[in-house]
Amino acid sequence: MDLQLFGQQLINGISLGALYGLIAVGYTMVYGIIRLINFAHGDIVMMSCYFAFFGYALFNLPWWVAFLGATALTTLLGMLIDMGAYRPVRSAPRISALITAIGVSFLLENFALVVWGGRPKAFFRPDIFGQVVTLGDVHIVLLSIWTPAITISLLLALLYIIHRTKAGIAMRALARDMETTRLMGVNVNRIISLTFALGSSMAAAGGMMWAMKYPQVNPFLGVIPGLKAFVAAVLGGIGNVAGAVVGGFVLGVAEILLVAVAPALAGYRDAIAFVVLIVILLFRPTGIMGEPIVDK
């Protein structure tokens, strides 16, 4: 592989990894607090893309207004899912919450399929993200630069919330011991709803950038990025917010460079993520930055 091709593919891998990491944050935040793998998270990504698409195409909103509106609606959706689906089974065995998450995933997919149809819709890409810049012999779509920049900015903002605000302190306390935190007067349900809100807003940002990178929307758009983001969360250390983003970058770069080095493996590109998951679970189940978790 020559240097030009390596640079091109490295940028593509970093951009893809940033998307995985941004979506993975929602998985890792929810799991870190209530030990739930929210399998509906990928479908929340899909819903955010539909919200943005209809805001722009149907209501003729400026793209940035459509994006902000879609983020707000997706945040609200995440909170409603928590209040309507997960809160009633909070005290039930964990398998009940897991089955509920799978049910919510099917509900969102079939809702989109029935209401908006199964035909893919072309997603728009604003000019600010679609322009191409040239660095030497490497041609870069600005979206590939914006994506990691937005991911890192949102990660820093989230880390500030978690480590420098009262709500963030409550989140970290819940992650350690929910019952003791409740006894100290913390409104547990409110903090968990805030966690879903933050995770869903990250999913919205990741989803809209995903739809601009692969410009179409369909009811099953969130399945593959959702599963790969889950792998990124496990790779980075599920429960660790920064680890989720690091895992996303590692997974994205590995996936793109492996296909670039061995084009014959391009048909197995999606399988690479799951091979990584198996290896991580076998040799380092806590991930790159994860801590040993004591099951209470």
Q: On the 0-100 scale, what is the average pLDDT?
A: 91
CATH topology type: ABC transporter involved in vitamin B12 uptake, BtuC
Q: Which percent range describes the beta-strand content?
A: under 5%
Radius of gyration: 19 Å
For the sheet with most strands, the description reads: 2 strands, antiparallel
How far apart, in Å, are the first and last alpha carbons? 50 Å
DSSP helical segment count? 12
CATH class: Mainly Alpha
**Shape, please?**
globular
Give the CATH architecture.
Answer: Orthogonal Bundle
Q: Can you tell me the residue ranges where pLDDT is under 50 for at least 5 consecutive residues?
A: none
Class derived from helix and strand content? mainly alpha
What pattern of helices and strands is seen along the backbone?
A: HHHHEHEEHHHHEHHH
State the total count of DSSP E strands. Answer: 4
Number of domains: 1
Strand order of the largest sheet: 1-4
